[in-house]
Amino acid sequence: MEPLAAATLKGTWSTLLLPLDESDEIQWGGIDHQLNALARAEVDGIYFNGTACEFYSQSNDEFLRLARTTATFCERNGIPFQIGASHAHAAESLRRIEQTRELNPGAFQVILPEWTPLTWEEILRFLKRMVAAAAPVPLVIYNPPNARKALTPSEWCQLVSKVDGIIGIKVLGGDAAWHNEMRPAAEKLSVFVAGIHLASGMVEGCASGSYSNLACLSPKGAVQWGRRMMADPDLALQQEGQIRKVFQSAMAPFRGKFSNNALDKALAAAGGWAALSPQIRWPLSSIPNADVSQLSTQFRAGLPFLFKETSSLV
To answer: Does the reported pTM lie above 0.90?
Structure first.
């Protein structure tokens, strides 16, 4: 596909998750099932190998098969896609870009190497080499809330002024003060926030799109809610308050006890669109099936507008 730009990277993007058997082996038919479900949901783009796809746990062969499977499907169906080249080891992240550059993704997603917080000079050195390896495909920087080095809004502004080839960032989002600080960066970058923060992010003029949590729960519902923001932003903001309240209540018992990876997988299992179990790879703990069943009941009762038209995805 053609490389994405800050102006064209937008909307509701959804991630693949690893469908695993009892031996932690990937069930590749489950990847095909997810890709078809996401296409039917009409997501604006598909990516893989963020937190939810357990990028840190994959062998090189598994990574390459995921990349080729995703690229082939998305090219055939005209769906924008990004390849997650993230790795805790900088050289392996670079290798992932070099091995899959020929697949022509719209962008590569990368994290900052996580074994130790980097200095500003080290961040620039890392990203400049990654940009050079990926060119002309641009980079999207994934900076999750649990990162060792969480960049501030002013640092994002500095970064984009010093490193060409970065078109977007994936961040949690924030409050009104965060939006005020982020606006200068949002003029140059596509800012993607967690799905449950999208309406306020768009109203504040910072967010261009969303990823993960809400789309993990219901890709079709997340897409429809994203469209509602354009037609009725007041209603979308009202529903965002409802979404946050239900997410906070439903997920509170699991936060601090399970990883973000486990939370995302449980959301997808609760949503029922992917025929996916909540199992994540050893040594991390998975949320039990009984709890996932309860989560499904809570979300469907509390957020019926996300599931109203999703039965065809199950």
So the answer is: yes
C-alpha–C-alpha distance, residues 155 and 32, integer Å = 39
Query: Distances in Å between the alpha carbon of 48 and those of 26, 68, 188, 278, 292?
Result: 14, 11, 24, 17, 23
Residues 94-100: contacts with CB within 8 Å, 24+ apart? 94/129, 94/130, 94/133, 95/60, 96/63, 97/130, 97/133, 97/134, 98/133, 99/60, 99/64, 99/67, 100/64, 100/67, 100/68, 100/71
In a domain, 268, yes or no: no
What gap in Å lies between CA 142 and CA 112, rounded to an integer?
8
Burial class, 132, CB count within 10 angstroms (exposed 0-12 / middle 13-18 / buried 19+): exposed
Residue 314 has pLDDT above 60, yes or no: no
Q: What domain range includes position 98?
A: 11-244
Nearest to 19 by CA among 305, 279, 234: 279
Asked whether the predicted pLDDT for residue 313 surpasses 50, the reply is: no
Q: What pLDDT score was predicted for residue 310?
A: 45
Q: Write the CATH number for 203.
A: 3.20.20.70
Domain tally, the chain? 1
34 touches 275 (CB < 8 A): no
Residue 4 within a domain: no
Query: Which amino acid, one-letter code, is at 193?
Result: V
Q: Is position 311 within any domain? A: no
Q: Are 84 and 16 in contact (CB under 8 A)?
A: no
Is 212 a member of any domain? Answer: yes
DSSP type of residue 124: H
Token duo for residue 93? 């992240």
Spatial CB neighbours of 215, under 8 Å, sequence gap ≥ 6: 12, 13, 14, 15, 43, 195, 222, 223
For residue 35, give both structure tokens.
Answer: 């890709």
> Helices 176-186 and 153-162 meet at what angle, rounded to 10?
10
Please check whether residue 284 is in contact with residue 51, taking contact to mean a CB–CB distance below 8 angstroms: no
